[in-house]
Amino acid sequence: MKHRETLDASLRSFCLFKHVLLLLAIGFVTFVPRARSEDETAEVVFHGRMLAPQYPGSSENVPMAAVYCFGSADGPDRQAIAFRTWETHPAGWYRLAGPAGTYSFLFSAPAGFVRPLILTNQPLKSGDNVNRDLTPTFDYADFYQGAWDEKPASDYFQTFEAKGNSITRVGFKLATDGVDGPGPLGQNMLLSIHKKTDGTPDKWPQVGPAATVLNVDCGGAKNYWWCAGWDSGQVLTKPGNVYAVHLKAETYTASLQAFWRKAQAGQSDCYRLGKAGTTGWQGRRLCMAVSSDSDGLVVPYNKRVQKKFVEFAGFEKSWSQTYVAQGKGLAGVILYAATSGVQPSLMKQRAKVSVRRGGPGGEIVGTEKIAIGNGNYTGDASWGVFGVSFAPGEVPLEPGRKYAIEFESIENYDTLHGFVNIKGMVSDDKPGFNPYRKVPPDDYKRGTAYRKCTDKQAFDLDMQIVEYRSDAKH
Question: pTM of the entire structure?
Answer without folding.
Answer: 0.90
